[in-house]
Amino acid sequence: MAWELPSKPVRELIRRGATIVLNPRPAWLAELDDAILSGSNMHAIAADPVLAAGTRRTNRANLATWAAANINDPGARVPVVLSEPAVAVARDLVRRGLNESALDAYRIGQGVSLRLWTRVAFTLTTDPAELSELLDVSCRSISTFIDDTVAAISARMQSERADLTRGSHAERRETVMLLLDGAPIGRPRAEARLGYPLTGTHTAAIIWSDDPDSDLGHLDRAADLLATVAGEAHPLSVTASAATRWVWVHGHPDPVRLRAALAGLPAVRLALGPADADLDGFRRSHLHALTTQRMLARLASPQQLATHDEVELVSLITHDPQRADDFIKRTLGRLETAPPEVVDAVRVFVAEQCNASRAAERLFTHRNTLLRRLHRADQLLPRPLATGSVHVAVALEVLHWRGR
């Protein structure tokens, strides 16, 4: 298709506008991310921290590609250059069993980008003829760039899908998905394909990294550490995406030992399901690990490791973020923003069943110091701690997992 360049004045306007877009305001990026991740077909992606982070990186890469091309050659058709974030997301979508409907994200992004670009265009000129030509050319450029990008990503997904159906890893992943979906696959056949006994007690883990620049080999190292702590000679590990591993071990790995072991791998995150028995337990532990991972993502928690047992109540409370915020503010009042030593004093005191001596020992502080901090907390709370300790404990747990 012939591509007609705009007039010279409009080309200069496009260059100026593209320079602005190349360094977008944080509010623009937030608007773009929020619109895409709240799309009707995007729930599975928004709930997965790795896919959500990859989508945000893809948004920025697409903006940068279009803007840079229009600075170098304003108004010309923008060539498709699949960025590494876009390729990684395409690969991960296929590995998660998602289809091309996930590419609706590009169409949503197109709409938001056009809206943002229109705001920029109205700052570039007040001449009606120039503005009309500028908007016409820009809309055609953006829509064509998205069309070309979606076609290229779709082709890449087809290629990834073909690759995924070959090899032993594909067989393990397929078998795991059948088990998780409750498909009628015989236990002996599943165990033979997985090389992992499905009897006994299982603990599932989700191991991932939010940092695209980290050494992804650390994910496999973390899986090895989990197996060591659990005393598991033959763990089951499946590559769910480039930056995610699904792992199962037998037994009950100690979270305290596991946290200490993971300290040397700061870019790695780990969500641990509860130990559960037999084939149903294999499935349930994994689903609980997923719930734990999604809670960490929802709260933007800095915690490196979380177990489902630790966060089950917090997960339920924070399922609706706005209601959770309202609950915290009503319950804690000014204690929410109190110094950390005051907040920690209350949290540990309640955890120790309101026993001041045990709480002081756990905090490595003098009992009188603890009592002074508790007195200060009572002054900050909307009602005394003695009359609402359960609600206060729950609110403080949410703050803890948020990193406060």
Task: Outline the structure in words.
With 404 residues, the chain is an alpha+beta fold. It has 3 domains: 157 residues, Globin-like; 108 residues, Alpha-Beta Plaits (2-Layer Sandwich), CATH 3.30.70.100; 82 residues, Arc Repressor Mutant, subunit A. Helices cover 63% and strands 7% of the residues. The chain is built from 18 helices and 6 strands. Strands 1, 2, 3, 4, 5 and 6 form a 6-stranded mixed β-sheet that branches. It is flat. 34% of the residues are buried. This is PucR family transcriptional regulator. Belongs to the CdaR family. Pfam families: GGDEF_2 (PF17853), HTH_30 (PF13556).
In brief, what are we looking at here?
The chain contains 18 helices and 6 strands. It has 404 residues and is α+β, with helices and mostly antiparallel strands.
Question: What keywords describe this structure?
Answer:
Globin-like; CdaR-like_regulators; single chain; 3 domains; alpha+beta; PucR family transcriptional regulator; Arc Repressor Mutant, subunit A; Alpha-Beta Plaits; 18 helices; 404 residues; six-stranded mixed β-sheet; 6 strands; flat
Present the secondary structure layout.
Layout: H1 8-22, H2 26-37, H3 43-46, H4 49-72, H5 84-95, H6 104-121, H7 128-164, H8 168-180, H9 187-194, E1 201-208, H10 217-230, E2 236-241, E3 244-250, H11 255-262, E4 269-272, E5 276-277, H12 278-298, E6 305-307, H13 308-317, H14 321-332, H15 340-351, H16 356-363, H17 367-380, H18 389-402
Parallel strand pairs: 4-6
Antiparallel strand pairs: 1-3, 1-4, 1-5, 2-3
